[in-house]
Write a structure and sequence with these properties.
heterodimer; A: 296 residues; alpha/beta; 4-stranded antiparallel beta sheet; 13 strands; B: 275 residues; 72% helix
């Protein structure tokens, strides 16, 4: 089922073409990462699909229907900076949000407990630290248990513990078969939680696909040994796709299903003792930089 | 609609500045409107007299004249609820909660309507306070208290209500275009109390401008002037001068025209703006 369909979206500011013919399809259950350097159009895209920015041309639809405020009720959003009424307490702020989302007020205490703000619920928002403000916006997004969640740089400005908590939360939510759209320039973050991703730069989509496909094809493993017959054994090993040798160090392109243990065992059985064995995991970061370089 | 009023209420209910401004405003209405007797007493003690008449017998609280007298005086206070509207709107912009509201699922139309409902409620409350206050003062001081006299000229309350609505829409329009509450307040103050009145006087009475250029016909169309013209100055009647003691259809039409313009432009502006 298609959750979000974006067709030919354009946004022009006076001098900048912030989005250029963007097409995007996000299906149910995907954890979709929107990647790109700063200023690539991630937040503009999210702003448009949430109706706070007017597109210059193009269209989008939520849940297969036309854009309407009703569909936004089913989307929980956590954007860059948490926006709440500073003079209201957490509970009072969530009451406003509940009224807007047309959801009952009975879940307010529950979501405050989930994000760990229950003890501070009667303090006004302006007294909160950045991490607490961020957590309140998560609470607000969870208020009506939405099937879709949008996160824009959700870990910005959080301490390592806060970042880990948010990641955990995203995973828990994704496990409930919910759809998540995550914009970030932290590739590590996307790699850890996303199933699909798209790369934007200067408003142009450079790549769209599954994270798994990009990462799982091959791994690179470095090995070396004092044994002369190493190269012959490498050629005989049927997991090897390709290899290069530099200064006695072999770099093997291996099927990623082959573990270091498998490899070690194989050489050991051929009477070769490895003096060096390092696996360079394919990272999204590497792929990302490659995609950007290819399109230069 | 009830939902939109409730949203606005939840935002303001725990906002101290809102309550301070609102109480000051209502208090000011009551003081100004009930203070007439005290003022006349004071004038008497100071030895003032009008053509040999004792000021305290001037029947400013007599039905039905009381309605025009009170609404005319109270209309000077409408700048205070305008502050409430301005602060309520610029707060949303400053805290970016307008954006958050839309993201949470309020449509832009609903957001605008919730602010319009604030304008409506504030105007309604002030009109009700004037009505109750007028009724009480009148029943105490008026020479005539039959129902017919009480409810004659009650349309001045309607005019007062419309005056407030239009002026608050004007304030809302400025507030939706600018970020800084202080700036909008100063601008509104300067324009409605200084610039436009001066321009209006020039248009109406400066010989060259008013006669030769013909600008005196423009003067009634200036927004703040149009709003105040709904209720004309009533007090010359106590020195036996002719006054306009009714609401002229022409004045009403111009005022309604501004109401449509202010609400329409602010709606259009907010609709096309990126938040």
């Amino acid at each position: 089922m298609t959750i979000l369909q974006i067709n030919n979206l354009n946004k022009r500011y006076k001098k900048v073409h912030a989005l250029n013919n963007l097409d995007l399809t996000i299906n149910k259950g995907q954890v979709f990462g929107l990647l790109g350097p700063n200023g690539s159009g991630k937040t503009t895209t999210l702003g448009i699909i949430l109706d706070v920015i007017q597109a210059s041309s193009g269209s989008y639809s939520w849940f297969g229907k036309d854009q309407s405020a009703n569909s936004r009720n089913k989307v929980g959003s956590i954007l860059e900076t948490p926006c709440f009424y500073p003079y209201l307490t957490a509970t009072q702020n969530l009451k406003v949000a509940a009224e807007i989302k047309k959801s009952g007020k009975d879940r307010i205490d529950e979501v405050l407990k989930i994000v760990g703000l229950y003890e501070r619920r009667n303090d006004s928002f302006k007294t909160y630290s950045l991490g607490m403000k961020q957590r309140l916006s998560i609470a607000s997004a969870l208020l009506n248990d939405p099937p879709v969640l949008i996160l824009d740089e959700p870990t910005n400005g959080l301490d390592p513990q806060g970042i880990a908590e948010i990641r955990q939360l995203i995973k828990e939510i994704a496990d409930q078969n919910k759809t998540i759209i995550l914009a970030s320039h932290l590739l590590d973050e996307v790699q850890k939680v996303c199933s699909h991703f798209a790369v934007l730069r200067k408003g142009v989509k450079l790549h769209e696909g599954s994270v798994h496909e990009v990462l799982s094809e091959t791994d690179e493993v470095e090995i070396s040994s004092d044994d002369e017959s190493l190269e012959k054994s490498i050629q005989d090993f049927n997991g090897t796709k390709n290899y290069v040798q530099t200064d006695g160090l072999f770099r093997l392109q291996l099927d990623s299903s082959i573990s270091n243990k498998d490899l070690n065992e194989y050489f050991f059985n051929h009477g070769i003792t490895l003096t060096h064995l390092v696996r360079n995991r394919n990272s999204l970061e590497k792929e990302f930089l490659e995609i950007l370089a290819q399109n230069d | 609609m009830i939902r939109l009023i409730r949203i606005e209420w939840l935002k303001l209910r725990n906002y101290k500045i809102f309550w301070i401004l609102l109480s000051l405003y209502l208090l000011a209405i009551v003081i100004i409107c009930s203070g007439g007797v005290a003022l006349l007493e004071w004038l008497k003690n100071e030895g003032a007299e009008f053509n040999g008449v004792d000021p305290t017998i001037i029947p400013i609280y007599d039905f039905p004249d009381i309605w025009q007298n009170m609404t005319w005086i109270a209309s000077f206070l409408k700048i205070i609820p305008a502050f409430i509207v301005i602060i309520s709107m610029t707060n949303e912009t400053t805290y970016r909660t307008n954006r958050q509201n839309i993201i949470d699922g309020l449509s832009k139309n609903e957001f605008i309507l919730s602010k319009f409902s604030l304008i409506f409620c504030l105007s309604l409350i002030s009109t009700l306070v004037i009505f109750v206050n007028g009724l009480i003062s009148g029943l105490i001081h008026s020479g005539v208290t039959d129902l017919n006299s009480i409810f004659t000229d009650i349309e001045f309350l309607g005019a007062f209500f419309i005056q407030n609505i239009i002026f608050l829409f004007f304030a809302f329009l400025l507030a939706s275009m600018m970020r800084k509450a202080g700036f909008v307040i100063v601008l509104l103050f300067m324009y409605s109390l200084i610039f436009e009145p001066v321009i209006a006087v020039l248009f109406e009475h400066e010989p060259y401008l008013s006669q030769e250029v013909g600008l005196k016909h423009i003067a009634p169309f200036l927004p703040v002037n149009a709003v105040s013209n709904l209720i004309r100055v009533p007090f010359q009647r106590y020195v036996f001068m002719e006054i306009q003691n009714y609401i002229a259809l022409k004045d009403l039409s111009i005022a309604i025209g501004w109401l449509i313009a202010f609400s329409g432009i602010s709606y259009w502006w907010f609709k096309r703006k990126d938040l």
